[in-house]
Specification:
Largest sheet: 4 strands, mixed
Order of helices and strands: EEEHEEEH
Distance between the termini: 68 Å
Oligomer: single chain
Radius of gyration: 21 Å
Strand content: 25-35%
Number of domains: 1
Low-confidence stretches: 131-141
Number of strands: 6
Mean pLDDT: 81
Structural class: alpha/beta
Strand order of the largest sheet: 3-2-5-6
Amino acid sequence: MSASSEPQFNLLVSGDVVVDHHIYEGLRRAPTTERRRGVRDVRELGGAAILVELLKAALASADDASWNVALGVATPRPDENPCGHHAYAVWTPFARERTEDGRDKVWRASLPMGYGHADTIEPDGARSAEACKRHCHVGQE
């Protein structure tokens, strides 16, 4: 197929789109600790949205331009306030046999934490952000 040709086939992906929160475990146990890996919270679209990206990459690596792949549902913004379609997991480095590229560790989800929701019931002893405001003096004089 020539580069100027339109794709012959269309693949429309539908399904749940989630916002994945990948929380990468850190090693800094105090704010003053330096030269240690800190915690990172990386948000990205998952579910049907990541399936579209996987299909596009597979077709590109097969050098098959006869397909057009698109997501058929609206996506949330990854930076929106967390709600019911946000999923959380803690990622931890695990030992691995040395590979050709020299890596000896891989990141794996060590603690799948489930989905959040704005109206969730708080665990015993937890305080919501609203309740904590009266105890927080950061930025106040």
